Description:
Layout: E1 2-9, E2 16-21, H1 27-40, E3 58-65, E4 70-76, H2 82-99
Antiparallel strand pairs: 1-2, 1-3, 3-4
Helix pairs in contact: 1-2
Amino acid sequence: MRIRFEQTGGIMGRKISLDLDTSELPADEAETLRQVLDDTNFFALPENLVAHPVPDELQYLITVETDDVVHSVRASDTTATSALRALIQILSQQARSRRTK
Length: 101
């Protein structure tokens, strides 16, 4: 499974991105991501959860690609469900840790 993550906006307007293949992760990390995706019911979420962008608000674009399906979801800090926020937090941490290496 491939996951692409992009965070944009905020006061500084910085962009953070991540492109990862779960087959390259340790088994426990890959399983955690799969579980969080299941918890969010990711593939049933609408593609755009951001009806009205708010200035300086962080926005996220998450694309998950499996052998069978590719699905993208755009969300923001105010529109993300709590389950989706958990996924955003994991992906944000992964993106930041890869940037500092």
